[in-house]
Please model this.
Amino acid sequence: MGDAPCLLGRTWGYDQGSVWVSDGCSAEFGTGPGEPETTKPKPLSHIPNVGFLLFASDEAEIYFRLFTYGRYLNQRNLDPTYVDAFGNEKTIQLRQDIQLQKFFAPFSGWFLTPKMRYYLYVWSSNPSQGDPAQVVGAGNITWNFNRFVSVGIGITSLPTVRSTEGQFPYWLGVDDRLIADEFFRGSYTSGVWLKGEFHTKVKYMAMFANNLSTLGVSASQIDNRMDTQSFVVQWLPTTGEFGEWNGFGDYDAHEKLATRIGVHYSHSLEEKQSQPGTEGIENSQIRLTDGSVIFTPNLFGPGITVNEVDYRMSSVDAGVKYKGMAVEGEYYWRWLSNFTGVNTSNMRIGVSAGNRGAVQAVSTQDYTAAYRGIGLETNVDFEAEYGLSLPLHYCGWVVERPGPSRLRRNLLVVAAGGGGDGAAVFEMGARLLAYRTDMAGLFTPGPYAGVDAMRRLSSLANDRVHVVSPLGVSGRWFSRAAAVLCMAGYNSTLEALAAGQRPILMPRRNPRREQAIRAEWLDGLQLADVVPAGADPADVASLLQRPRRLPDGALESAGINLDGALNAARRLHAFSAAGSLR
Model:
């Protein structure tokens, strides 16, 4: 029902007596004796982006993930020294080594009630062998009240910038940030936080913590003021989301323009003793722009040592994602003030500003081959995609054009379910009718519509919604409809086009991209409109205001050939004459 993604085990789940949701997931859930036992994940099964289910009962669930990689580093061609802003020459240790760079093993799930969530992990940075926090066992627990608020306590990333909102490791680099981001940001710390949404397109997080970084810092080093706060508000105006985990780059291949604007503000009163060691893991010590740690004795002159400083930082980020491409940027401001220590009375406010930006495109060359089924010569190799042993020869579309029919200007036809996954399309149709009370709906489930889709349909039937068998009726009703909403399968898409409709398509994207590519191609020809699953119904409803009938000759002008049967017969005749069917 909402725009946020619902991921089983991550943002929703269930036990014997209840269903839980978090992080903006909202939906209608149904129960009954007809529910297949296989709908609930079984132990040792894998849930994408959640992990392996190790244990499941009515009292708890445990998921496990593993993240690691190796790295070769060679710095031998760098200059061995540099001069800082104060004219001091510094020596650089030039490294060349091979490391199992990171080892990250999180355990997540719920305990006693799905409202009580936990996220516990073992984390190691092998290049830091010997440091106090080389191996970390940490995590947090949260209580989810509803999609508007959850309360957490423990260790998490302080949301000072976008990259510390919890996307790790979904970054453009394997495990690194851009240098400006690294300079300004906070780190992982202990505290308590509130997280949720004001609206489906406006999310927030507020955290109150011990300091900027807790890694390598014991409780005895921290002062007792708890004077660290960090806040973020993100606005997602077009789609209500910005990809899986809000990560960087459009690896989700958005078909509708996704946009984001984020605002961060953080404050912390930091003292010298509460900082990680100079070479500490995830060391976020407050540094000057030349890399010098501000608490270094005699840094600003003989006899001057800063022991405490007031840190304030703000950033604004924005980004767009569309069809594998992303443009994203962030601007930072940092203020350092109220210096206390030895001979610091003449020190004034220090202000730093910086920015980062990235332009990214995801290549689809791994999908590229020959796809002539609808006139598109790119993106899908059907022989490899479907494991076919014979080469394919595409002859065009095969369809029977429906006869003349009287147009019903208030009729929305919704068709889906050939592959067992039409529930989302039927859900969108129901929400469209909620916006357009002047319209009636005709829902036609496919022969393999699936339990979820049929259950949803049975709940929709009323005086404005009718459910009919698809056999032999789709083309006739398509030609009568004021608008058609369907998936982008071959049959329903082709019948809608042949009936003169400009359909609204919600294509399947997994496990194969055939429907998505067909939909994109037709959208580019202005023969269809494409909307993603979970789109805002208000945006989809606006498409009903556009002309939904194709002008005469539109298919022919686009090069779409409906004589596939005749062309197939001609090709078979040619093969027969040549004595080969290959």
Observations:
- The chain is about 15% helix and 35% strand.
- The first strand starts at residue 12 and ends at 14.
- Confidence is low (pLDDT under 50) at residues 33-38, 278-283, 362-380.
